[in-house]
Design a protein that fits this description.
This protein is α/β, with parallel strands linked by helices. It has one domain (about 5-194): Class I glutamine amidotransferase (GATase) domain (Rossmann fold, 3-Layer(aba) Sandwich), CATH 3.40.50.880. Helix content is about 25%, strand content about 30%. It has six helices and twelve strands. It has helices at about 15-20, 35, 50-60, 60-70, 80-85, 180-194, and strands spanning about 5, 25-30, 40-45, 75-80, 85-90, 100-105, 120, 130-135, 140-145, 150-155, 160-165, 165-170. A hairpin with a 2-residue loop joins strand 11 (about 160-165) and strand 12 (about 165-170). It is globular. The protein binds glutamine (GLN). The site of glutamine has 11 residues, from helix 5. GO terms for molecular function: glutaminase activity; pyridoxal 5'-phosphate synthase (glutamine hydrolysing) activity. Catalyzes the hydrolysis of glutamine to glutamate and ammonia as part of the biosynthesis of pyridoxal 5'-phosphate. The resulting ammonia molecule is channeled to the active site of PdxS. InterPro entries: Class_I_gatase-like (IPR029062), PdxT/SNO (IPR002161), PdxT/SNO_CS (IPR021196).
Length: about 190
């Protein structure tokens, strides 16, 4: 059974742990480098990317995260987690750092403010069985991707799911729905690495 961590510094950690467990992983919260070292894959949850980035630096996690992701550990970021995986942020807060891993530029809060959150059916390449229910909460969109990154889903003319090698990112939050197919896709990515 693959051990899949959820970065547990801030954000909707519990929902991801539940979804990963349903998708067949041994799911664990990850706060410290030693816990990261034991994980075969990692989810970066939704929440607030600025806060998560600051806490990752404070807890000594930013460099270990960068090293594991650069070394090919499977990683899946939702919403704020997508922002953390981006090589570039269009409108970063001062000092906002990213882990990187996907050659893409994201725009934070691109779909509007908290009260403009919405749900929409999204077709995701590689996810069989029809569209997934996309929950968008102050969600980023992907402004552009580099040559190494594949766009898996588009909504409203903007890329909202991207994969580059073992790094997967969605603007939306599958962990807030009962549909665990995105987590299933990710757990399969972790299994493939062995
Ligand atoms: N807007 C948030 C950010 O910039 C992301 C929101 C979310 O994760 N639901 O981090």
């Amino acid at each position: 059974t693959p051990v899949v961590g959820v970065l547990a510094l801030q954000g909707d950690v519990r929902e991801h742990l539940t979804a990963l467990t349903a998708a067949g992983a041994a799911a664990r919260p990850v706060r410290r480098p030693e816990e990261l070292a034991e994980a075969d894959g990692l989810v970066l949850p939704g929440g607030e990317s600025t806060t998560m980035s600051r806490l990752a630096v404070l807890f000594g996690m930013m460099d270990p995260l960068r090293e594991r992701v650069a070394a090919g550990m499977p990683v899946y970021g939702t919403c704020a987690g997508m922002i953390l995986l981006a090589g570039r942020i269009l409108d970063p807060r001062a000092g906002q750092e990213t882990v990187g891993g996907i050659d893409m530029t994201v725009r934070r809060n691109a779909f509007g403010r908290q009260n403009e959150s919405f749900e929409a059916a999204v077709d995701v390449a590689g996810v069989p069985g029809g569209p997934v229910e996309g929950v968008f909460i102050r969600a980023p969109w992907v402004e552009s991707v580099g040559a190494g990154a594949d766009v898996l889903a588009v909504y409203g003319g903007h890329a909202v799911a991207v994969r580059q090698a073992n790094a997967l990112a969605t603007s939306f939050h599958p962990e807030l729905t009962g549909d665990h197919r995105m987590h299933g896709l990710f757990v399969d990515m972790v299994r493939a690495v062995g």
